[in-house]
Design goal:
Blueprint: E1 2-7, H1 14-17, H2 20-27, E2 32-37, E3 50-51, E4 61-62, H3 64-75, E5 83-94, H4 97-103, E6 108-113, H5 121-127, E7 130-133, H6 143-154, E8 187-188, E9 191-192, H7 202-220
Parallel strand pairs: 1-2, 1-6, 5-6, 5-7
Antiparallel strand pairs: 3-4, 8-9
Helix pairs in contact: 3-5
Length: about 230
């Protein structure tokens, strides 16, 4: 899979993508990253990429023509059919686990990092397939949401994780939060590991985990049960 990222700050991605699972995925050539610095397509001496909004208002808007040039530098070389252009945006659709699974199956994903007060609507309408938001709050830019999206989908690519089953029974995979987990020591400050987990009876353990997952979801995220 190839992931191309259009951003004003490509340098912020290096520490994340060169650590842990993401680093191993790159080394195994299971995923390839490409960074396009939007500033390279800016206008004039100062490489301007934004301008004031028509109609007035606070803040600046990323220019459609600049974004289009940056995107074209990627798409002119695309040879795969399975590709998608995403814009990180506070007004986008909420990002969910099922969406991460679908994105992980693409051959080529292009992510445009939103910035400032937004992006010229004409660019969105012509070039963007989907706007994604990672939550109901505002960030200073789209780089952190992009990292979230990348991290969530790369781990789902086949052979990235050593144990494929690790992604099957985690939170949101079945509309339930994951059941409580325990490890050694068996007794921690007077609190013991539930007896059923020590029983060796896998049928009872599975039933207990399902029950606890339901209880946890009901208490913390009842909206998932709808």
């Amino acid at each position: 899979m190839k992931i191309s990222i259009i951003t004003l700050f490509p340098e912020v991605f290096d520490p994340i993508l060169n650590t842990s699972i993401l680093k191993r995925a790159r080394q195994k050539k299971l995923v390839e990253f490409e960074f396009i610095n939007l500033r390279d397509f800016g206008e004039g001496k100062h490489k301007v990429v934004d301008d004031k909004p028509y109609g007035g208002g606070v803040g600046m808007i990323l220019k459609a023509d600049i974004l289009a040039k940056a995107l074209e530098s990627i798409t002119k070389n695309i040879t795969t059919v399975s590709s998608l252009v995403i814009l990180t945006s506070a007004s986008g659709k909420p990002y969910k686990q099922y969406r991460a699974k679908k994105l992980s199956k693409l051959d080529h994903l292009i992510i445009v990092c939103g910035h400032y007060e937004g992006v010229d609507q004409r660019f969105i309408e012509k070039y963007v397939d989907e706007e994604i938001s990672i939550g109901d709050y505002i960030l200073t830019g789209g780089e952190i949401p992009t990292m979230v999206i990348v991290d969530s989908l790369v781990r789902l690519i086949p052979r990235v994780l050593k144990k494929p089953e690790a992604t099957e029974n985690e939170s949101f995979s079945t509309n339930l939060l994951e059941y409580p987990q325990y490890t050694r020591p068996e007794n921690f400050e007077g609190k013991k590991v539930p007896t059923v987990l020590l029983s060796g009876n896998h049928q009872k353990i599975a039933k207990w985990r399902q029950q606890k997952a339901l209880e946890k979801t009901t208490k913390i995220r009842p909206d998932l049960l709808k």
